[in-house]
Design brief:
By secondary structure, the chain is of the alpha+beta class. 25% of the residues lie in helices and 14% in strands. The protein has one domain: Glutaredoxin (3-Layer(aba) Sandwich).
């Protein structure tokens, strides 16, 4: 089983169908609209636009687990992302990324260590997980690693399909 085999719903309802991204690099990011890091949406959208033709998909996963910074409904989240950041990348249903109700997607992701060696619980909004085209987790990045950072961009370049 890989990340692409995990079931999660789209923000708009119905299955998000991660399997359709098999063979592409997938950047999974837990997002929130009322966080100091929320402006990262702009950088994530830029990554989607820049790398989509080369096989990258950014996947936003709303979560309200960090200081209640994503309290909105699916419609409110969608509207916020489109109006403020022009988001075109897919968004999933709002899920728990930590704790006993952790979504299976995050159960699969959190065992990967970031550059500082951190594994386990997601620390805050906008933590990033890069999934290789074969569905394995290639890298993990702290919330403060911005979408335009050399560290993240280098990892994306290495993970893009050949």
């Amino acid at each position: 089983m890989t990340v692409f085999d995990i079931e999660i719903d789209a923000l708009s309802g119905g299955p998000a169908d991660l399997a359709r991204h098999r063979g592409k690099a997938l950047l999974v990011v837990n997002v929130a609209s009322r966080c100091g890091l929320t402006p990262q949406y702009a950088g994530l959208q830029h990554l989607q636009e820049e790398y989509a033709d080369r096989g990258l998909v950014v996947l936003g996963v709303p979560s309200n687990q960090f200081a209640g910074q994503e309290p909105g409904t699916a419609e409110e989240i969608s509207d916020f992302c489109q109006v403020n950041y022009g988001v075109t990348f897919p968004l999933t249903e709002k899920v728990d990324v930590n704790g006993p109700a952790r979504h299976p997607l995050y159960t699969e992701l959190v065992s990967t260590a970031d550059a500082e060696g951190h594994t386990g619980d997601v620390r805050w909004n906008f933590e990033k997980f890069l999934v290789a085209p074969d569905g394995t987790v290639a890298a993990r990045f702290a919330p403060t690693v911005t979408p335009d950072s050399a560290e993240l961009r280098t990892a994306i370049e290495k993970s893009l399909p050949a």
